[in-house]
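Cross-check.
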Amino acid sequence: MADSDHSVTRTRGRNETEEERADRMWQELIQEVRVAQMGVQILFGFLLTVVFTPIYRQLADSDQAIYIVTVVLGAAATGALIGPVSLHRIVSGRRVKPQAVQLASRLTHVGLVLLLATMTCSLLLILRVATHDPYVPWLVTGILLWYLLCWYALPFWTRHRHTSR
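Predicted model, tokenized:
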């Protein structure tokens, strides 16, 4: 029997005030950001040490350029993903939580895109140094496509498929 054939009406959504919704959304956002923050901070910390290793001086100019781009992307991702914490601390108690949640969500999206770029560049650099095989760009492209599928395509597909109109 199809859902449309049921005589029982299902309700969607929550019965909550704008402030309650903002509180709930803030808590959800912070939990999500914690996962991304840990990943970007570990990756960024590792990247910062590479320049102090003997092998850095032996890298080709192109690999050093990839490294510099990767470090800058990692720094930008770290800033965007830590930004919601600072935002919350500065506006806390000012009765602007709905607006803060919206801005923090945007910072998180930007941070995730920057993290995607950082991880892709890191992988490219590591594989170029580990092996000089011509398949490296193809492998990195495959991983990038995997990230895009997991982080964007599946969530957008789910949103499109399961969001009521």
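Helices lie at 18-50, 54-58, 61-91, 97-130, 136-162. The CA atoms of residues 125 and 131 lie 10 Å apart. Passed to J.P. for a second look.
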